[in-house]
Design brief:
Blueprint lengths: L10 E5 L12 E5 L9 H13 L3 E7 L8 H22 L3 E5 L2 H12 L3 E5 L4 H13 L5 E5 L7 H4 L7 H15 L22 H11 L13 H9 L5 H5 L3 H4 L13 H5 L5 H10 L5 H24 L11 H9 L11 H5 L6 H13 L4 H14 L3 H15 L6 H12 L20 H7 L2 H50 L1
Parallel strand pairs: 2-3, 2-5, 3-4, 5-6
Antiparallel strand pairs: 1-6
Enzyme class: lyase
Pfam family, one: DNA_photolyase
Catalytic activity: cyclobutadipyrimidine (in DNA) = 2 pyrimidine residues (in DNA)
Length: 507
């Protein structure tokens, strides 16, 4: 496959620039945002292809928003450590410079385009409101000669190709996506270094200083240790010889993925997919290659990876109110408002919920799992969100709190899948009306007794307790070692000074 193989349907022209009067095109800049990888990145492939066609150099720019949508050390640390690796490989193997900007992208990106005289800006696709508004403002601020392309490098079938409208649910979008898979679920071309090199490749980014500052500012939600960032780590989770999902754990996926006591049955790819450190299309290609061995598991995985993920992007792209009650269907909004004043057995504040101070040990365990582990099992996330609806003053407050907690603590928060998960649980999107009940109205109901029929509830609660105890023990040991190390250094430092004071006069 040649390098010029990005299907036109994957690219949208956000702004058409005028031809330069002297006929000389400027450099190409790829503003990387959602797809933070070198391998299998359609946006980067397109940017390099366009640069080579015009015989101009290419650079990659990344703008670090200040705590983007509430992101803390857990999220930004993971992201920046992955970008640090990417920066090194990109410049070492491809001679493409990587520019990291701090501030508002509406200012930093247009300024950079002016400084380097760029004629084409390539961006990757995100359906989130903040990012789309940012792109619109960038298009207004760049010069008339600058063209802006948006490439959907995140979905197998580009969002605007899969459907031209807001889809009601998985059953309405599944057929549309499947019809396009033969065209879009194809292998990737090999990314080659650009023909023209950037003038100055010695871009120096003090990653350690930037990461340390981000960790300090976002210390309220510390980093997690179970998930190593970066493209190489992502491929290890997918295809590793020790514990790779497709190589070692796939066969249990369809039978165990809904059991919160068996998290190892899940792929473990969500952090990497969220930050774009691995391509969903690569995951799908590798899964399809091993389908013969585990057809049911692969089909279930592809349903989640392609249909459900792309349904979430469809919702956030075509529904501007994807994170509020306004985004619910009329029937759901009506039933929720009809029951908004129903008496609740318990009422909890956001602070009580955040600290897992409820009368439900199962809910508390799920909240604590997310706070300390950085991830909650998918089945528990449904129960978790529905209980927030049951325990707060109304659906608006329930939705606000669920999104706040998910975005703050979950490593894959601030994602279309997260917004849709909360909206499905609380507002019934991509679902249907059920038997009417107090508080829930016709929204699908879940309770403790139902969970007990599904899995070992007490086992799950104990599993979370043991995990947290181990985590606290590890943190205490780390602090003890840190304090002991500092004390030892102080003692050694003082001993050295004393020895010098004694030895030097004697000489």
């Amino acid at each position: 496959m040649s390098s010029a193989s990005v299907q036109p349907g994957r690219i949208r022209i956000l702004k058409k620039g005028s031809q330069p009067s002297n006929g000389n095109a400027g450099p190409v800049v790829y503003w990387m945002f959602r797809d933070q990888r070198l391998r299998d990145n359609w946006a980067l492939i397109h940017a390099v292809d366009q640069a080579n066609k015009a015989n101009v150099p290419i650079a990659v720019a990344f703008n670090l928003f200040d705590q983007f949508l509430g992101a803390k050390a857990r999220h930004l640390g993971f992201m920046l450590r992955g970008l640090k690796q990417l920066n090194h490989v990109m410049e070492e193997n491809y001679q493409i410079p990587f520019f990291l900007f701090l501030g508002e992208a509406e200012e930093t990106i247009p300024n950079f385009l002016r400084e380097c005289g760029a004629s084409l800006l390539v961006t990757d696709f995100s359906p989130l409101r903040k990012v789309r508004n940012c792109k619109e403002e960038i298009c207004r601020r760049v010069g008339e000669s600058v063209t802006v392309h948006e490439v959907d490098a995140h979905n197998v079938v580009p969002t605007w190709v899969a459907s031209e409208k807001l889809e009601y649910g998985a059953r309405t979008i599944r057929t549309k996506i499947n019809k396009k898979l033969s065209e879009y679920l194809i292998d990737f071309p090999i990314l080659k270094p650009p023909i023209r090199k950037w003038g100055l490749l010695n871009q120096v980014t003090d990653w350690d200083v930037i990461i340390a500052e981000v960790l300090r500012k976002g210390a309220e939600v510390p980093e997690i240790s179970w998930c190593e960032p970066g493209e190489q780590a992502a491929m290890e989770v997918l295809m590793g010889s020790k514990n790779g999902f497709l190589t070692k754990r796939l066969k249990n996926y369809s039978s165990d993925r809904n059991n919160p006591l068996k998290p190892g049955a899940l792929s473990g790819l969500s952090p990497y997919l969220h930050f774009g450190q691995i391509s969903a299309q690569r995951c799908a290609l590798e899964a399809r290659a091993v389908r013969k061995a585990s057809p049911e598991a692969v089909d279930s995985f592809l349903e989640e990876l392609i249909v459900r993920r792309e349904l979430a992007d469809n919702f956030c792209f075509y529904q501007p109110h994807y994170d509020s009650l306004q985004g619910a269907w009329d029937w759901a909004r009506k039933t929720l408002m009809d029951h908004a004043s129903d008496k609740r057995e318990f009422l909890y504040t956001r602070e009580q919920l955040e600290k897992a101070q409820t009368a439900d040990p199962l809910w508390n365990a799920s909240q604590l799992e997310m706070v300390h582990y950085g991830k909650m099992h998918g089945f528990m996330r449904m129960y978790w969100a529905k209980k927030i609806l049951e325990w707060t003053k109304g659906p608006e407050e329930a939705l606000e709190i669920s999104i706040y907690l998910n975005d703050k603590y979950s490593i894959d928060g601030r994602d279309p899948n997260g917004y849709v998960g909360c909206m499905w649980s609380i507002c019934g999107i991509h679902d249907q009306g059920w038997r009417e009940r107090p508080v829930f109205g016709k929204i699908r109901y879940m309770n403790y007794a139902g969970c007990k029929r599904k899995f070992d509830v007490d086992g799950y609660i104990n599993y979370v307790k043991k995990f947290i105890m181990r985590l606290v023990y590890v943190r205490r040991r780390w602090l003890w070692r840190l304090q002991f190390g500092l004390l030892f250094q102080m003692i050694r430092s003082r001993s050295t000074v004393t020895l010098r004071l004694v030895v030097i006069p004697c000489a």
